[in-house]
Amino acid sequence: MMNLGIPPIIGHRGARGLAPENTLSGFRAAFAQGVFYVEIDAKLTADGVVILMHDETLDRTTNGSGRVAETPYEVIQTLNAARTFPDHPPEPPPTLAAALAVIQSVGGGINIEIKPCPGRERETAAAVIEVVRSAWHLPTLPLLSSFQRPSLEACRDLAPDLPRGYLSESVEDWAAEAKALGCVTLNLLWTTITPAQVPRLTASGLPVLLWTVNAPDAAQAFLTAGVTAVITDRPDIVRGS
Ligand code: G3P
Ligand code: CA
User: Fold this and answer.
1) Which of 16, 20, 59, 202 is in Cβ range 3.0-4.6 Å of 82 for a Cys bridge?
2) Which residues does 135 contact at the CB level (< 8 Å), separation at least 6?
């Protein structure tokens, strides 16, 4: 079986509860809690640069406005991505390449959620793969996940060696599709299952990752039940043991 190197605690969008989401300082906030594996959201700028950004628009997380897909990187790199933490020093939305460098500098790992703007599903996957190919040098590979099936299909077709995670908000619909896409993890919304259901899921042979678990007791219960990892905004309070 592929060594995915996934630890029990993964920082969500870096460490979203502690620092601005999808930023390099968010990574450092996770590292400060002993968490060196993070989940991020990857999107394309108008001119095809892969950046870290959750929303289709810039308005919620930055001091800019408008659609990411219509904004060139030249503009995006001048923005402050720390809008959700008003007292935080400003910093730009990072490129995926910069993010991979920081993660690798601590020997960490990353779950890259491919979060394409509508119509850019395959293009975003292809661009993410290109960045990973040129910028990732550790033996344990990034996990590529997506809600968008065309993005996962593109990953399967273009980079079959890179591990893929099947993201789903429903516990019932995943099995056949995840298999067809060659996914190696199930990344599920934690409120859709109970710890008692975990053995049935893990019987598939695929590691289960749950998002976004911010309650320490729930995290512990799911990990004890056999979940491989919980993805959390709060790596300061959600612990792996
Ligand atoms: O990858 C798991 C989780 O991040 C998916 O939801 O909306 O937080 O990107 P969202
Ligand atoms: Ca995400």
Assistant:
1) 20
2) 96, 97, 100, 101
